[in-house]
Recover the amino acids of this structure.
């Protein structure tokens, strides 16, 4: 079955950087569009970034554009989200998703001094 396991979430100071990882299994990763979504405390799910199967096409929400970079390694079945210039409003649980449907359990990112 589809498994998505996120990691890398920690407490980081404002202005800091962080890389999230997602290990995928149970499907043909190289053929799937992948996404990162987040849910801040008390708020709904926000789709942060998408990447197509080959990695040449990406999408970013306005809230993270210019600060976050999505990437993937199809040889390793891994998805990444490089986050920089982090702000308090980036605090959320971050989820990896396949085709904006199946999601993992999430990893918590807290941006605070």
């Amino acid at each position: 079955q589809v498994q998505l396991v996120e990691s890398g979430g920690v407490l980081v100071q404002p202005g800091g950087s962080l890389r999230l990882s997602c290990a995928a299994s149970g499907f043909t990763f190289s053929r799937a569009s992948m996404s990162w979504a987040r849910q801040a405390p008390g708020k709904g799910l926000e789709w942060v970034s998408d990447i197509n199967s080959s990695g040449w096409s990406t999408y970013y929400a306005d809230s993270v554009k210019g600060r976050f970079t999505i990437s993937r390694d199809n040889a390793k079945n891994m998805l990444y989200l490089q986050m920089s210039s982090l702000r308090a409003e980036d605090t959320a649980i971050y989820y990896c998703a396949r085709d904006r449907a199946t999601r993992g359990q999430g990893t918590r990112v807290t941006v605070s001094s």
Observations:
- The two ends are 40 Å apart (CA to CA).
- The chain has a mean pLDDT of 97.
- The CA atoms of residues 70 and 81 lie 5 Å apart.
